[in-house]
Write a structure and sequence with these properties.
Length: about 350
């Protein structure tokens, strides 16, 4: 006889990011939506690794101040996390009890359902329409048991986002006792008047929390650093649940440096736009259908080449030193998700893709 966990955990599989693996020593990883350009060079020059025998601050005033100043946000409404997925988990633990319902979208971030289940909540899936979040389908699922709505905008793995008007229609249509968790992990890649990153929602509504990350454009995925923005009451609740030393000292220091380097952020943004346009042109030449993406990755449909499934393409790429992401977990067996790499990496991927298509269509 041994102690078993709570019922919601009994049949739960561990969340294992499937970045892929290969026996080859040299690999190009285009499977994890990381910044191929890495992080700002200023970190190598300015980062001071010291006092790591001391616990980090529970609430880094300097990093909070930096985020606040650059984004013109209220310091009292900010919270740091060990990656934004840490905050997703804390939110679910804070606001869900057994029997409570939480809504997430069909192609939403996999951490959403995982966190709901761990907290003991009931999952409700809002179907997407043409790979875009449907506000109407979210609203149809709301009941008196609904506590949370998880929405990634732009979404992963589709790369699509819904407009500012649709977001306002959503928030104006949900009860005030339902919290909208607005995950804007890819916001830095989007400069579009029709897009809203979520911060202005927090200023107008008491039931919104915006989440951001340093893992994408800032290139700090390995340090696990994210942040959230909400009204101070919600932030205080989350601070009470979050681990006391959630964010490590090195991540804090690197985050301050990265946030201040606007030139590097602009460089990464411009490179992403250029790479995306190039990739779209080349995919059209090869007859590959894809979902137009506003992030740093593309969801590709290989159904025109049905002799082999996407899993065969994933294996082919892996054997040739390139890792891409298959989409079976989203019930999309014909699709692969490919992150944008360096110019050299993108060219090599396209060369392999052309070879795969040629081999399989003959």
């Amino acid at each position: 006889m041994f102690l078993e966990p709570k019922e919601s955990i009994l049949n739960l599989n561990a969340y294992k990011p499937n970045f892929g693996a290969s026996n080859l020593k040299k690999l190009i990883r285009l499977s994890a939506n990381e910044n191929a350009l890495g992080y700002t060079p200023r970190i190598d020059k300015e980062l001071k690794i010291e006092n790591i025998n001391r616990y980090p601050p529970q609430h880094s005033a300097e990093l909070i101040k930096t985020i606040s100043k650059i984004n013109n946000l209220d310091q009292n409404k900010l919270i740091l996390g060990n990656g934004s997925d840490d905050l997703i988990s804390v939110i679910a633990q804070t606001f869900l009890k057994p029997g409570d319902e939480a809504i997430y979208t069909e192609y939403g971030f996999l951490q959403f359902p995982q966190s709901i289940t761990i907290a003991g909540g009931e999952k409700k899936i809002a179907k997407d329409i043409n790979f875009h979040v449907s506000v109407d389908n979210i609203l149809k699922l709301i009941t008196d048991k609904t506590r949370l709505i998880f929405l990634a905008n732009a979404n992963n793995p589709t790369g699509t986002f819904i407009s500012k008007n649709e977001i306002y229609r959503l928030i104006n249509s949900i009860p005030e006792n339902v919290l909208l968790v607005y995950d804007a992990a890819y916001a830095e890649y989007i400069r579009n008047d029709d897009y809203i990153d979520g911060s202005e929602l927090v200023e107008k509504y008491n039931n919104v929390i915006m989440l951001r990350t340093f893992s994408k454009l800032h290139g700090l995925a390995g340090l696990r650093l994210g942040w959230g923005y909400s009204n101070s009451k919600i932030i205080n609740y989350l601070m009470a649940v979050r681990g006391p030393f959630s964010v490590n000292s090195i991540a804090i220091e690197a985050g301050i440096i990265a946030m201040k380097d606007i030139d590097f952020q602009n460089y990464c943004y411009d490179f992403n736009i250029k790479s995306m346009k190039f990739m779209e042109i080349e995919l059209k030449k090869l007859g590959i259908n894809f979902i137009n993406s506003s992030a740093n990755f593309i969801l590709m449909n290989l159904s025109e080449h049905k002799k082999y499934l996407a899993k065969d393409a994933v294996l082919f790429f892996k054997n040739n030193g390139v890792l891409v992401r298959e989409m079976n977990v989203y019930n999309l067996p014909d699709y692969i998700r490919v992150s944008l790499g360096t110019e050299e990496e993108n060219n090599y991927f396209l060369k392999l893709l052309k070879k795969f298509i040629t081999q399989n269509d003959n």
